[in-house]
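Re: [help] complex structure
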Amino acid sequence: MEKFESLYHALANLDGYIFPNEIVLNWDVLIVMYPYITGLVAGAFILASLNRVFNIEALKPTYVISLLTALSFMLVATMPLITHLGQPFRFYEMLITPHLTSAMAIFGFVYLWYLMVVLLLEIWFDYRYDMVIWSKEKKGFMRFIYKALTLWISDTSVASRKTDDKLGYFITVVGIPSAFLLHGYVGFIFGSIKANPWWSTVMMPVIFLFSAMVSGIALVMFIYMMINFIRKQKNDILCLDTIAKFLFYILIVDFALESLDQIHRIYEADESFDILKILVRGKLFFTFFIMQIGVGTLFPLATIGFFQFYKPKEHIRKIMYLIVSICVLVGIFYMRWNVVIGGQLFSKSFLGFTSYKADLAGGGSALLALLWFIVPFLILAFLLWLLPPWKKAPHVEHIE
Amino acid sequence: MPIQVKRLLMVFGLFIAIMAVLIYFLTPESWGEFGHYRGLALKEIADKEVKHVDVNETCAMCHDSISATFASGEHKSINCQNCHNVGYKHVEDPTKENIVKPEVTRDFCLRCHAKNPARPENYIKQVDAIEHNKDKVCINCHNPHKPWE
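Output below.
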């Protein structure tokens, strides 16, 4: 009830019959950011893994970028949750009171596993040799930083690099199911809520996973172009075409899965169907049909699909790729919005609606959510400065 | 064992040790008293100021005639505070400023009475928001405290 001073104020925002605990929509736009950001992490990582495990030469320029992107978003992934709690002075209690029987609390473990065992390790193995070299080149404080980052290992022998490579490869292989776990888990949180017909479907983890891949790939594509723009380098068009091709395939799968889910729902037309129909045609019309399906899915599919048959001039393709990547990112944001907010707008009595409007400032606000989307880019800029991929030594295989 | 693995295991060991120390020192005192939460949280919530007062014990004491009319009308099942906003301040210090006297527009009554297909007719009577005695204020005909008077 915090949002409304009392029931008196709340009544003006309701429609039909609704249970008292549904009046205030508790999971606000910050909770929309949470699956969004986690999805970007999982997606960017899966792109990196595809690259490494299947050895796709054309994607090489994006390998390290996608890893660093995944890391910078991962570091922020918990922040929307923590700020949403609105307890800045005791948020840490959540982190030090682990719980094994709550699906939500399991996120702590999934998160730690993914951050510490997968992402950090893979990046560490990838950079260890370079950091040793850099620690020798630099002086003073930076030298200490790089030394600390290498954990004071100064071995630069080919044998040690081979070990790095092998262990890194192993981590990548472990990492793919872990990335699936990470985002499948987020989908599971929603899919397992059986009282909510908008969420409760076994498809949810799979849908989340594929939409995560879509958004992660679009993000890496966007960031790759941005980095080249800032560094005044030429985009590798072959690389962009390849990323776009993957984006296209996965977008098709994602769209097919989501449609399947909806068709299933429409055909089953169980007792919740009437209210969901009103929901989708009314309060979610803009975010669902226009943003998620139109801007986020159909337009990118049509554009990249067209490029698979007819390739216009390079610079046109580049501009279109930039636009498409932004559209996909926006579309997936609205997909998360439709799930998180949409699922709370209607009453579980199926007889009424509440309403939601994100405030601009304050806790649980749109600005705070935007902040958690911008901070990862700053972290990424820092990481790119600290660990510049363009100064890396050639891969160990190319030495012999 | 390669040196990389050795060092990493040390780092992980260190991390786990730090977590253990943090858990030991930072877990709040009343944690787990009743369940997997801070026992004190219950008290903190219970100590919050109550804003919705018990209408039978308060409003009725001073506004006896309105309350009597009200109790015999169709609105008797709803709380005074749904239309007048919370009364905790007014009850302590009854002035006009700390209670709402709703300005009756049509929208005010239609919050609850507007036709809505999702709302069963036998729960609450509904009228067509536009057609029902167009352009007239509801309280010209219905007394808010006793709609059929």
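Chain A has one domain: 29-340+358-391.
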